[in-house]
Amino acid sequence: MSAAHVRRGGGARAKPRKSSGNAVSKKIARNLPVNEARASKLAGLAFTGFLLAIAFVVLVALDIPAKAERSAGAALGRAGFVVSGYQIVGLDKMDRRIVDRVVTDELARAAETAGAGKPPQPLVDVAAIRERLIGFGWVKDARVSRRLPDTLVIDIVERKPAALWQDSGQLTLVDAEGVVLDKVAISNMPDLPLLIGQGANAQSKELGRLMASVPTLQPQLASATWVGRRRWDLSFQSGETIALPEGEQAARAALGKFAKLDRSNGLLGRGVVRFDLRIPGKMIVRLPRAPGETITGDQPPQQS
User: Yes or no: is domain 161-303 CATH 3.10.25.10?
Assistant: First the structure.
């Protein structure tokens, strides 16, 4: 029996397996949307943006852009591009001195900024002039433009006065939309319908539509009182007052019926003090007891 040679230590040992961690990491890195080179590039861009932001803040803090603009404007002024005068067009009823003050204030500011006797064209802020002008009631719109070589043109679009508004003892002009235009002295009242009462100016557009629906009565209107912020009392040149119901549609219907009756029967101009149309389908008439007598509120009306 042959001797068997037995190798000590048993069978051949398997080689230890290397860790696959590095391979996995590299694989993940290859699959990431941002690799190392791209990340480095992004970091560089971010740093550059940061430096630019700091530079911008420093420039603004030192007023460098504005100084450069002022320097350029002053240089153009020395070259002859200055404002030597201005022209105002479209002005009718508004006080010219108001426009003069707005324009000269801006011209003085521009000249002071440039350190010159005359304001350079580029330093005159035409938008600021327009903004101040449209803040006045008379001005519906304004256009400010430069006319070379040395003139500003201020084109005013005025609002048109449509009525007088009396409230708390103050008399003012208003346009068709109720915008307050200017104060008016009692001694200098224009021939316009008079609106009376708090908030009456805001209802002037409604009143305009109402009176436009009765063209035979419109020229005879003397004043309109906004009662309780909800309805109108209309006073006519012949002395009568018409009390209208609340609501534009109801008021228009009642006034339309009254206008038809007036055309057929001549209701106005006969000495009636008051026509009350507030109750649908009824007209309450208040008459004076004697010619020239005024009926007071505590005397009973007559119905028809």
Answer: no
Please tell me what DSSP assigns to residue 191.
Answer: S
pLDDT tens digits along 150-185:
899 999 999 999 999 999 889 999 999 999 999 998
Q: Which phi-psi region, left, alpha or beta, contains residue 178 (left: φ > 0; alpha: ψ -120 to 50)?
A: left
Residue 29, Cβ neighbours under 10 Å: how many? 11
Q: pLDDT per residue over 218-237, tens digit each?
A: 999 999 999 999 999 999 99
DSSP 258-269: HHHHHHHH--TT
Domain residue ranges in the chain: 65-158, 161-303
Pairing of strands 161-167, 170-175: antiparallel
* The two structure tokens encoding residue 15: 């080689």
Tokens of 18: 């290397």
| β 194-196/221-227 pair status | parallel
Cα 65 versus chain centre, distance: 31
Q: Give alpha helix (H) positions in 14-146.
A: 21-31, 36-61, 64-78, 96-114, 126-133
Spatial CB neighbours of 154, under 8 Å, sequence gap ≥ 6: 86, 87, 88, 89, 99, 103, 129, 133, 142, 143, 144
What is the pTM for the complete model shown? 0.64
> Which CATH class for the 65-158 domain?
alpha beta
